[in-house]
Amino acid sequence: MENYLSRFNISHTYVEGNDIIEIKNAIKPNTKIIYLESPTTFTFKLQNLKEISTLSKKHGIKTIIDNTWATPIFQNPIDYGIDIVIHSASKYLGGHSDLVAGIIIGKKEDIRKIFETEFQNIGTVPDPFVAWLILRGLRTLHIRMERHYKSSMEIVNFLKKHKKVESVLYPFDKDYKQIQLAKKQMRGGSGLLSFKLKTRDLNKIIKFTNSINFFKRAVSWGGYESLIIPYAVTLKENELSNNENISLIRIHVGLENTELLMNDLNNALKNI
Ligand SMILES: *Cc1c(COP(=O)(O)O)cnc(C)c1O
Fold first, then answer.
1. pTM of this prediction?
2. pLDDT tens by residue, 57-87
3. CATH number assigned to the domain covering 141-269
4. What is the whole-number distance in angstroms between the Cα of residue 267 and the centre of ligand 1?
5. Does the beta carbon of 81 lie inside 6 Å of ligand 1?
6. pLDDT for residue 68
7. Domain 5-129 is found in CATH 3.30.70.860
């Protein structure tokens, strides 16, 4: 939005997203799109899809959601009045960390417009092998998602009890502040979650991440294997001090045995 859309004189306003009044106040006469990501993929904040789509329709604004985290197994935003749903197919739809692709879903007239204009100019086309890999991944999607959900709940409960962990962010944790909304618009949760270490010492945070054996240190997620990434790697040098999120760690809970994953986390936590 900042580097690309600004070239076309398209401006934007960021809001937290959990307060409908804040969204309402951000609407301007030239507002065309409300772009959502629910839940967000580091801090897991939810937006109320029904309220936002009702508000948008009143103003003639289209809504787009990035639905990558929940997948179509756990969340169907079109049922809540959202116009366009996008997915990174590189994540759960493919499910094996071996392809890059994306999917846009919406009404025929919206998709046709995108296809005939933007897509023809700047879109990319997955090759037949990538398309085949996505189809192959989709066959086990529902089973993989059930397992990611079950394993994540186990890991969440393990982390919540650990004395070196301050807090855990997962929409289906019973103590999560937006659990009611999560249950209302989603049927379950995927494998991506965050937790905050009690320490704010960057050296300890680095030591913790480097003591992890089994989780791979990588950014993209949604595949069979477990991954870990500290939020601190997304920060610039001058953003490191006094940052509330400095000790936030994001993990992707893969399809492996959860005992193995908990032992790995436990050993690394012991090290700090
Ligand atoms: C990874 C990701 C993307 C980008 O997807 P790619 O297929 O890697 O280009 C977009 N949205 C979310 C929420 C993601 O996690």
1. 0.95
2. 999 999 999 999 999 999 999 999 999 999 9
3. 3.90.1150.10
4. 31
5. no
6. 98
7. no
